[in-house]
Amino acid sequence: MSAEQTAPEAAQQRGNRKRVVGIVVSDKMDKTRVVAVTEQFRHPMYGKYVKRTQKFHVHDEQNDSKSGDKVQIIEARPLSKTKRWRLMQVLERAV
Fold it and tell me: For the chain, how are helix, strand and coil distributed in percent, rounded to 5?
């Protein structure tokens, strides 16, 4: 990453990485956030809409996000045993 590029711009050049939007549910760790990503889909057999929530450990270098914030995260290389995602931006601040 060169000096004039920011992290989101450099991530776009590295190819198609998954990006998801979720809510920060824990900010108790230093430089790590737990983000809950909820997806809603139609069950293939029964047709009922099912809500599924998945939690990701996310790297937040500046400790920018707080619990309740809506954030966008991007897939990254393994940063630790559980961290595979990096914070891209805070979309909405919690009240």
Answer: 5, 50, 40
